[in-house]
Design brief:
The structure holds two protein chains of two kinds. In chain A, 52% of the residues lie in helices and 10% in strands. In chain A, a hairpin with a 2-residue loop joins strand 1 and strand 2. In chain A, the strands form two sheets. A five-stranded mixed sheet of chain A has the order 1-2-3-5-4, sandwiched between helices. Chain A is elongated. By secondary structure, chain A is of the alpha/beta class. Chain B has a single domain, classed as Alpha-Beta Plaits (2-Layer Sandwich). Helix content of chain B is 20%, strand content 12%. Chain B has a two-stranded antiparallel sheet with strand order 1-4. Chain B is globular, with a radius of gyration of 16 Å. The chains are: A alpha/beta, B alpha+beta. At the A-B interface, helix 2, helix 4, helix 10 and helix 15 of A face helix 1, helix 2 and helix 3 of B.
Chain lengths: 381, 102
């Protein structure tokens, strides 16, 4: 594994060694003083032997909600970060538990807002603004960064115990036995969801089977749809432009208002296919037969194409109908296939396997549709 | 609650029962209840639910588990194919791929 976060954040070789913490480039980031209002969730400071530690609020404010909403739509998502370091919730002391989190603000907000009435520490790792699970997959939420961060914030001087609660979804990046060897801290894997943290603590740091399992409920799937939808805007605009040109060239009406309405009418089947692939298929995911995502999307796309063709049947030729039956399902299929990355249960081997068949099939169908369309234009059938 | 099911017989997860000491850490970290423990030994009870995240292998203190770790993400696989790298959802700050959503 590359040196990643440690190497990039700090070009000198002191890697959080407390002796060298006066060294300019390795000074812990000052989260509490990061700017006038950049960290409104910092509500105070906690005195420790190593200095002041920022105390964070457990309130989830409308501003946090708006930030999360924006990130879901892909607005400023890559810069939705919290400065890495140590934070306090309530009034923690040397015996208080230490929770580990990522510096994606949505992850951090969710965690702190579940901790009302508790006194504990939160150690925020530098995952470059990526959530725990994805960062663990990349290794940025990992053994190396955790061990580095422990010494950088001088955790052994702040707490007397030697235990950390790491979110279970951080486990793909963290080796508990290696962390113990390198830092002396024992890693306890906490629940998957931040909402279960108080119950986990209440049960004496024991997780139930339900706390350990990753879910992918309808709501979980729905919140991911906006980002998928946004990713289709560019090609959709391109297609609109193409449809406009086609109508301009093929149309008899010249440049008139009907040109715009024809273009928009021509766009409807594609819009339907995009919504089928990015919203409808994810939403109905477990209810659509067959395990492969590309297949699920294709099936739903065919359904949509059928509905559309039936709807326009009276005024369109059979080639028109066939064209839509060829071009729309692969669009929905492709977009649904991309939803594998949002899902919480697909494996690399599985996705690779379904793509081996799905991608050529999507291409053949789409190219077939385009050939039919061009042939129709040139030969007039 | 509905249990999602993905393609069968594809997961690359393997457990070397001779090495296993039955510590149970894999049961703790697995997000899909793939393992069960029986009289001091772990066994793979539901391999088809494995998503190859690698948490178990990463945390197994005796290296009894192996799995080809990767992201189950079509966009990442396409990107990897185009760039000639391993499937990865970006990895840099400018990552705009959809596979690492919130």
């Amino acid at each position: 594994m590359e040196k990643g976060p440690v190497a990039r954040e700090c070009s000198c070789s002191c890697n959080g060694d407390p002796q060298n913490s006066e060294n300019r480039c390795c000074k812990p980031m000052p989260p509490a003083h990061a700017g006038e209002n950049r960290t409104p969730w910092v509500i105070g400071a906690i005195e420790t032997s190593t200095g002041k530690i920022p105390q964070v609020s457990t309130e989830y404010t409308p501003r946090d909600r708006f930030g999360a909403w924006k990130a879901r739509w892909g607005i400023g998502r890559m810069d939705y970060k919290v400065p890495p370091g140590l934070y306090g919730v309530g009034n923690p002391d040397a015996n208080s538990l230490v929770l580990v989190s990522a510096n994606y603000k949505m992850s951090f907000d969710r965690l702190r807002s579940e901790l009302k009435g508790l006194d504990l520490w939160i150690l925020v790792l530098d995952t470059r603004g990526v959530n725990v699970w994805c960062a663990a997959g990349k290794g940025t939420f990992g053994t190396e960064e955790l061990v580095h961060r422990i010494s950088q914030v001088r955790l052994p001087e702040i707490v007397t115990h030697r235990a950390l609660i790491v979110p279970q979804l951080g486990a793909p990046g963290v080796s508990a036995h290696k962390v113990l060897k390198l830092s002396g801290f024992r890693v306890l894997y906490g629940p998957v969801r931040a909402a279960d943290v108080p119950a986990f603590i209440g049960r004496g740091l024991k997780a139930t089977a339900a706390m350990r399992e990753v879910r992918f409920d309808m709501r979980d799937r729905l919140v991911l749809a906006p980002f998928e939808l946004v990713s289709t805007v560019k090609p959709a605009l391109l297609l609109l432009a193409v449809l406009f040109l086609v109508n301009l060239i093929a149309g008899k009406e010249g440049f008139a208002l009907s040109l715009v309405s024809h273009t928009l009418a021509d766009f409807i089947p594609y819009l339907g296919a995009v919504l089928t692939g990015t919203v409808l298929t994810p939403l109905l995911l477990p209810y659509i037969p067959g395990p492969a995502f590309a297949w699920k999307g294709w099936l739903m796309g065919l359904l949509w194409a059928g509905v559309y063709v039936w709807f326009i049947a009276s005024q369109a030729s059979w080639t028109h109908g066939l064209f839509y039956l060829l071009i729309l399902p692969p669009i929905a299929s492709y977009l649904a296939m991309n939803f594998t990355g949002c899902s919480t249960y697909t494996s690399l081997s599985g996705v690779a396997k379904e793509m081996k068949f799905a991608v050529p099939a999507q291409l053949i169908s789409a190219v077939g549709g385009i050939i039919l369309w061009v042939g129709g234009l040139l030969l007039g059938f | 609650m509905i249990k999602h099911r993905y393609l069968k017989k594809v997961a690359t997860l393997e457990l070397n029962a001779d090495k296993c000491i039955g510590c149970g850490v894999c049961l703790d970290v697995c997000p899909h209840e793939v393992f069960e423990i029986n009289s001091g030994k772990t066994w793979i009870s539901d391999r088809d639910r494995c998503m190859e995240c690698g948490a178990c292998a990463q945390n197994c203190p005796v290296e009894a588990l192996t799995v080809k770790v990767g992201v189950g993400c079509a966009a990442a696989i396409i990107q990897g194919k185009l760039k000639g790298t391993a499937p990865c959802c970006g990895g840099s700050e400018g990552d705009k791929s959809s596979c690492c959503g919130g």
